[in-house]
Amino acid sequence: MTKEKILVIGASGQIGVELTMALREIYGNNNVVASDLREENPLLKGSGPYVSIDVMNKEMLHVQVIRQGITQIYLLAAILSATGEKNPGLAWHLNMQGLLNVLDIAREENIHKVYWPSSIAVFGPTSPKQNCPQQTIIEPTTVYGISKYAGEFWCNYYHMKYGVDVRSIRYPGLISYKSAPGGGTTDYAIEIFHDALEEKRYVSFLEENTYLPMMYMPDAIRATIELMEAPKERISVRTSYNVAGLSFSPKEIAAEIKKHIPDFEIIYQPDYRQEIAGSWPRSIDDAVARRDWGWKHEYDLAAITEDMLKNLPSVMK
Ligand code: NAD
Fold first, then answer.
1. Same structural domain, 80 and 65
2. How many angstroms separate the Cα of 200 from the Cα of each of 44, 111, 154, 305, 308?
3. Cα–Cα distance measured from residue 245 to residue 300, given in angstroms and rounded to the nearest whole number
4. Which residue range or ranges hold the NAD-dependent epimerase/dehydratase domain (predicted)?
5. Closest ligand 1 atom to the C-alpha of 38?
6. Residues 163, 184: one domain?
7. What is the pLDDT of residue 2?
């Protein structure tokens, strides 16, 4: 087997930190190079190599890929849904150009595999709300969703035209305690735990019955690694795979937290993010990922709540 050397771009972010840790466990600390525009995340310090990379600077990225002998790239740098609506031009520019830079370098340097996440934000108001299938009407209304959908087709194009082995998952909202979320519409499901522990009170920016597809970070990391390790011939989708975890509303997660913190209260003050959330499906059908590479989520709402309330205090100090 060829020795793999992996570059994670956006390693200081919510997913990047945990994905880098998981990849270092599998491939060895020195074979996973963390990189970001931001400084190295304290959780990664000392565990392996770190380089400062701006994914928009193609030349600098190209030099690092050659210098480090990189064979696989995980591209996580992006501007997320809520932040994207505040600066649409920047979101489009980073989300598109960053991906094209990586795909071009992957093609030129014969990179073995590329990972790039898409999002349930590709779906829009005309997509089915329940069990939204892999292939359906897709008319996104946020700049983030538009950029992710265009990105999916660039991945497919580079695979078909140039044989780049690029793989992708449409992540739902990801819940985690190790690193802070990066400006998504589903961030409420993380903030609520912080505020429940600190103030026993949370002001929700989504209405009480807004159901969204969600997933606990350990499931998301496992999905990513299982997809990347699946044999090439099992991968039938070269745009991006639907993967499902669970779906719940602010009212339901608040009720689950109340089982642990009985005097916790939630107040609803929906803002511009309600409109974004309202445009997305409530639940996702992931039959194709299950069939192709055996995907199955593990964490339900009770397990997530228990784990978050148990582990969050140690990182909040
Ligand atoms: P994040 O914002 O927490 O992390 C992104 C990282 O990219 C940050 O550390 C940032 O400093 C870095 N970055 C930004 N611009 C850069 C540049 N020019 N060069 C190098 N690094 C740069 O985001 P995340 O939540 O970890 O998301 C990672 C990926 O997963 C993104 O593509 C996102 O769209 C996707 N995704 C996330 C979620 C979620 O719930 N977190 C859901 C669906 C899809």
1. yes
2. 31, 49, 45, 15, 15
3. 8
4. 6-243
5. 11
6. no
7. 63
Distance CA 178, CA 176 (A): 6
**Both structure tokens of 119:** 């999002």
The DSSP symbol for 284 reads B
**Which runs of consecutive H residues, i.e. helices, occur in 14-87?**
14-27, 58-67, 81-86
Packing angle, helices 188-199 and 301-316, rounded to 10: 60
- Regarding whether 252 and 165 lie in a shared domain, the answer is no
CB 260 within 8 A of CB 306: yes
**Percent of the chain at pLDDT above 90?**
95
Cβ contact 187:253 at 8 Å: no
Same domain, yes or no, for 209 and 224?
A: no
Q: What is the pLDDT of residues 275-302, one digit of tens each?
A: 999 999 999 999 999 999 999 999 999 9
Does some domain include residue 1? Answer: no
Domain that holds residue 124: 6-173+216-242
User: Looking at residue 287, what is its pLDDT?
Assistant: 98
Read off the amino acid at residue 35. S
Task: Single out the residue of 174, 286, 163, 151 nearest to residue 227, CA to CA.
Answer: 286
Tell me whether residue 206 is in a domain: yes
Q: List, for residues 165-182, the tens digit of each pLDDT value.
A: 999 999 999 999 998 888
Same domain, 156 and 250: no
Ligand 1 and 80: CB distance under 6 A: yes
196-199: long-range contacts (C-beta < 8 A, 24 or more apart)? 196/257, 196/261, 196/264, 196/309, 197/261, 197/309, 197/312, 197/313, 197/316, 198/316
156 and 199 fall within a common domain: no
| Ligand 1 in reach of 77 Cβ (< 6 A) | yes
Ligand 1 pocket, 173 CB below 6 A?
A: yes
Please name the residues in contact with 104: beta carbons below 8 A apart, sequence gap of 6 or more.
58
Q: Considering only CA atoms, which of 181, 129, 148, 175 is closest in space to residue 12? A: 181
- ipTM score of the complex? 0.99
Say yes or no: 205 and 223 in one domain.
no
Return the bridge partners of 169, or none: 241
